[in-house]
C-alpha cells in the first residue's frame, strides 16, 4: 500500500505561518508523510528545528531559488498537540497565565515596517499558542493595535474570543486622539495597569 502523503503549499506565507500549518497537520494526523513547500529561509530553518522537536524524519528537496520542499515522516511517537509551540523555555510559572504589556505598535528599533511586521507575527503566533496570557495591556503607541483599520485587530479579537482580556490605556488613546476608534477590548487607567502588572508574571513587548 502506498504511503498517504499530505501536501501543504506554504509559499508566500510569512514566518511563523508555515510552522503553524505543519504543527496543526501533524497534530491532526491521518497520513504517513507531510510534504510542505516554503520559499522563506527563516521558515525552512524553523521547520527543520520543529521536525527535530517533533521527532520526524526529514527529507529535503531544493526546488528553485529559495524554494524547498520538506517531507516530514512522524516517528510514531506522540505528536505535538495543536496548541504547542516549541520554545527555548517553558511558560513562566507554569499554571499562572502571564500579563503581556505592549508599549509600542512594533517590536524593536530600526525599520518601522519591519517592527510592525514583527508585532503582527507575534500576535498571530500568540493566538495559536496553547498557553494564552490572561490579559494584554496596550500602552503608548501600542494602543494603535486595537483601533479600526489596524493590521493586528483580527488577532486581538481572536485572543479576546479565547478569553484574553484586552485593555488599552485611556491616557494614551486620548493623547493620540484614538478613543473613538477603539475596536476591541476595554479602556483602563494607570492605577489598574499597575495593579495588573504587580499581580504576577509580566512579559513586556515593544
Task: Summarize the structure in words.
The protein has two domains: 5-74, Translation Initiation Factor IF3, CATH 3.30.110; 99-205, DsrEFH-like (Hypothetical Protein Ychn, Chain: A, 3-Layer(aba) Sandwich). It is 32% helix and 22% strand. It has six helices and nine strands; from the N terminus they run βαβαβββαβαβαβαβ. The protein is elongated and about 65 Å long. The chain is of the alpha/beta class and 206 residues long. Residues 77-95 have low confidence and may be disordered. It has a five-stranded parallel beta sheet with strand order 8-7-6-5-9. The chain has a four-stranded mixed beta sheet with strand order 1-2-4-3, with helices on one face. It starts with a strand and ends with a strand.
